[in-house]
Design brief:
With 142 residues, the chain is mainly α. It is 77% helix and 0% strand. α2 (32-55) runs antiparallel to α5.
């Protein structure tokens, strides 16, 4: 049971962090196609987050973990610093790719090291697949 809770918490935090990052870069993007990519990725993360919110009560009475205020500030600050001199689509895609790759790694680690229920595994599989698609789409903007 605890493995399911931990897995859901980690993926929920990852989805929240992805949403934060996309929100922070969205105003820097000028290319309309990249803006659409960011909107789609944001919605994909939101779908994962909502799915976790739906099943979490089966495993725990509390709420899934979210990113802390400090993590949000650090994410915002990092994006601001890294785009201060270069706000190009390429730079934004590079930053997003780094985050997406971290999400894929975390998701794979959870799947490889946990004995989790099928519905939790299905959410993590969707999370990883969504990010793998994002990698391919974002590579076009490098």
């Amino acid at each position: 049971m605890q493995e399911n809770i931990n897995a859901l918490d980690e993926i929920h935090k990852g989805a929240c962090m992805g949403m934060d990052a996309l929100h922070f870069v969205s105003d820097k993007v000028e290319d309309s196609k990249l803006k659409e990519v960011i909107k789609k990725q944001y919605q994909d993360y939101q779908d994962i987050k909502e799915r976790i919110d739906e099943i979490y009560p089966k495993y725990n009475d509390g709420n899934p973990h979210e990113t802390s205020a400090m993590n949000k500030v650090m994410t915002w600050y990092g994006i601001e610093m890294k785009t201060m001199m270069d706000k190009s689509d390429s730079k934004i895609a590079e930053l997003l790719l780094k985050g997406v790759n971290m999400g894929i790694i975390e998701g794979k680690k959870i799947l490889n090291n946990k004995n989790i229920d099928k519905e939790v595994k299905d959410i993590i599989d969707k999370y990883i697949s969504m990010q793998e698609v994002s990698v391919e789409v974002l590579k076009e903007y490098l």
